[in-house]
Write a structure and sequence with these properties.
The protein has 144 residues and is of the alpha+beta class. It has 3 helices and 7 strands, in the order H-H-H-E-E-E-E-E-E-E. The model has no long low-confidence stretch (mean pLDDT 89).
Length: 144
Amino acid sequence: MSWGYKLMATFIVFAVMMIYMVYRCFGTNFELVENEYYKSELKYQQVIDGTNQANSLSTAPVLNQLGNMLVLKMPDEMKNGNVSGSILFYCAYNSKKDKKILLMPDTNGTQAFNHIITPGIYTVKIDWNKAGKNYYAEKKITVH
């Protein structure tokens, strides 16, 4: 085989590899952490203030998995109170698994979640309000 054919074969192999890499790049899914991250960043001072308020409580919120059910236990100060807020189950690697649920604890300060969270690794962002004070806590959890 002459050097001309070898050079042509090298260019063809290079072109095929480049076409394959471009094809793979178009098939890659790039997800943002949040669709409206700028608005979230402007509200970050509220997260800092809420975290400081939550740190002043006697205990932190606790999230346990019991079989197929997740149970959230709020701090003792939140019992028998008018608590409102939300819980975001944020899955960093798959936005389709994200779930936002209204916080509605019972008089004992607990709330159970049945079969709504698929298995995965989550950052649970709990944002709640009681008596005009905002609270915020984050927990990492692996759901089996």
